[in-house]
Here is the input.
Amino acid sequence: MRGRRVYELDRLHAKYGPIVRIGPDEVSISDWRHLRTIYHAKSGVIKDARFCDPIRMFGQHNIFQMIDPAEHAARRKLSSSPYSLQSIAQLDPIIQKQSLEVICQAGFAKEFTGPTATDDARHLLDLIDGSAAAFMYSASIPFASIRGVGSRLPGPIGASYRAFADWQQVSRDMVDHFLQHSSEETKYLLNPLSQSTDRFLNRKLAHNELVEEAMTYMFAGSGTTSTTLTYILYEIAKPNHRHI
Here is the structure.
């Protein structure tokens, strides 16, 4: 409730060691050597649906939310080809020329241009950031995500759901533009998802499923990049890196 969970976990690990039971069915592990045991796709450790289910964009299954190993493996295989070294090399010129927003251009050919380009890109990032809390609220108070209830609530809860709704609409527009103009170009990350067959479903992804995955690309590709750059700038700013 006080937003101090990570600090409390750090204190508990300092006191009790790398494995701490913090609830009836929850264990916190701070030893990196257990990463593969927990997170490897074939480890047999199944993710908890109560934690994963709220991470939905359009109410569809997505690669971050799936807990069925067969379903996840099929979606991972479907989306993996653009991440090969050879494929990423094709995106390098696109990445190099972007100054603010990269994932939408690399993912599905959305380039922010014109006099309002910076403001438009920043608006999208603000919507993504503003939506993050909606996932937590959906897990804590599930009724808020039903029939637009969350958007009508006051304060930060309502604000997060309204940002999420706006982000959904922007994402749908981006995907529609991609399907009309760029879906045949193999270099974009969304191409195999729009063109190939999901072997678990035995069909191509439906439109809402495609928008679902596009939003997860945006969510994952914005936060990770900005966090990494933040830490890089923090390290460079230290006195012992003054020469850099």
User: Anything to note?
Assistant: The longest strand covers residues 19-23. The domain at 49-241 is CATH 1.10.630.10 (Cytochrome p450). The chain has two domains: 1-45, 49-241. The chain is about 55% helix and 5% strand.
